[in-house]
Structures are given as structure tokens and as C-alpha cells.
Amino acid sequence: MYDFRSHFGSRASRRHPWLLTHNFRSLPESGSFAKMAGGCAIFCTIMSGVAVPLLLFFGLLCLNESPMIEIPVHMKPDAGKGCFAAAFLYAGTFLYAYSKMQAAAEKVRRLELELQCVKDSIKVGADASSPSRGDDSSAELRKVQVVVAAAGSTFDRQLKDVRKQVNELREEVELGLRGRSLGSLEGVDRPRVDSDARSETSDAPSAAGSAISAEDSTEFKKMRAVVGAAAKNFTMQQCYTT
């Protein structure tokens, strides 16, 4: 925001409120502003270079009571003094305005340098942060790869354990079935004396079959429980890794 109050005073600010709310960005660019200021300085220099000598010349003519100045004689001394005062006032005003303009141009130049420094620092920060972002993304990718590899190895190990347990249970079931079948055959081949004994031996295979089926169902329940626990553990591992 350009502060016009310090240059134009409170009266100009009251007459023109837009001076206080005028955004500096709506002014010309810094280069154009510097060119405009330089042009105004050149114009004021030319005007001062022309006006001040003319005022001094007319003042000298008035003080010397030259006939070239067609005014009453008694007014010529005052007119000469007025011309000298106007010349000095004009020169003083020009010097004051020129110094203010030079200060404003220097301020604009300094702001340009600061803005350029800020732009360079932002550019350097962006260039420096771009490799770090790549490193962060590659590090995250490596972490994901490590997690996936660990989950895969865990799943393979659990799958091997489940297969081992299933094989062990299968072997136990086969051994149990073989032992029970031999026992039932021995019970069948034994000599029986009477019909009651034959009836009991005839009922023995059915009882053995019922016992085998019950134990088989128990073993299969155990196998089902082991497989279900392994599947649940694998599901939890997958949820944790994702």
C-alpha cells in the first residue's frame, strides 16, 4: 500500500479517499515507474533550467529600471525583488521535489532487490525440496516393499505350518484307522462257542464303526479349527499390512 497521506496531507486525503485505498499493485510495474520518475525529473530539470534564468533576467532588468520592462518606474524595484524570490523559490521547490523523487526511486530499487532475493530464495528452496520429495517417496516405497515381503514370508511360513499340521493329523487318523481295523478283524476271527457269542461278535464291527466315525469327526473338527485359526491369522496380517 502506497502511503499518499505523507505526501498529499490530510486535506487531499479527505478530498480524494481513493488515495488511501489505492493499491500499489495497480500502479505501473517497477521498471515503468522508474522510467516515469526519470521522465518527470528530466521535465522538471528542463523547466527549472528555463524558468529560473528567465526570472533572474527579468529581475535584473527591473532592478536596473530598464525601458524594456513596461511597468511604472516605482514598481520596478519590487518587481525585481519578486522575480528573484520566485526564481529562488522555484529552484528550492525543484531541488526538494528532486530529492524526494530520488529517495522514492531508491526505495523502489531496494524493494526490487528484496523481491528478487525472495524469489531466488523461494526458487532455491523449491529446487532443494524436490530431491527430498523424491527421496521420501522412494523411502516410502522401500518401506511398503519391506512390509509386503515380510507379510509374504509370514504367510508362507504359516502355510507351511498348516500343511505340516494337516499331514500330521492325516497320519494320526490313518494310524488310528489301521489299528482299529486290525482289532476288529481279530475280534471277528476269534472262535465263538455259542450263538450268543456269535451275535456279540457280529455286533462288534458296527460298534467299532461307530467308534471310528466319532473319532474321525473329532479329528476332522480339530483339522477344521486349525485351518480356521490359520486363515484368521492370515486375514489379520493382511489387514495390518494394508
UniProtKB/TrEMBL annotation:
It comes from Polarella glacialis (Dinoflagellate). Keywords: Membrane, Transmembrane, Transmembrane helix. This is Uncharacterized protein. The chain crosses the membrane at residues 36-61, 82-99. Residues 186-217 are annotated as: Disordered. Residues 187-201 have a biased composition (Basic and acidic residues).
